[in-house]
Amino acid sequence: MKNRKVKSNRAQADYFELLVCQYICCSCGVTFSYSKDLSSLMDKILPLPDGTARLKLQNDNFIKIQPKIKDIISYETTKKGRVIKVVWVGRNLLIETTSDVDAEHNSSQKTRFSIKSIAKVGTGTLKNLGARKIKKFLGVDFSEQYKEMWQHLRNYLKAPSSPRCLLKNKVIKDRRLLKWAAENGKKYQIKLNKLCFDAFNSLSLGCRIDFLNFVTGCDDEDLYVIIVNANDVIIYKPVDKNLKVVKNIDAKNDSKTDVGYIISVDGEPTYRVQTNYTNGIGISAYCQRIFWV
Asked: What is the pTM assigned to this prediction?
């Protein structure tokens, strides 16, 4: 059920991104190439118990941001020329980007949008770091501990050579096994969080700055972040978040959790880090989600 919820949440996000993509296409008189994708997403969301309400939320949030999108496109067009193509890049896993939708101008320049639609309040995930990024920026290689976690599960099930896919399917179908796997996974989640916390504080100031600049995507001067929630529409350019003159950055324990911590910039709590397993059931790869405080 949790896995289904994750998939339905992803479908909603995709649906919202395509609404924005379609709006830019219509505003600029260019072809919208994702009609089938949009229709398919609607078909996935509507059958859910609250599918109609989910679509209404995304449509309502979309109405809120239309004037902002229009203003941005109008401004960028005066600088970069008319829009000739709009690309949905959010689901293209071959492209490493913070952008969800790219508007391409006839000058070969782009205006890029990272878009988040939130049901209640907050700003959503700023960056989701997988094992490779954690290793690259923090120097933490968790692969051996991850193998150990799976081996504990195999031993518990008395299936020492079973492949992960079979174990996963077995666990998902059995509440007792799922409970054990989640508790076992939580131990490793805490271990990874501690390793990342210590590793971050061991970095030089320059490396900490590089890491946080990567998290905000501030090297992309064409990128806009647009966040819409129940209360507001928030827009900023990550390039304006570049940490240019900083004296101190450090991580501090979060008293509310043992699987997260707070990163302060010059004494001001700025980022919240949360160490998770990617599908919420304790038997998949781990990641770190980073949020604005």
From this structure: 0.82
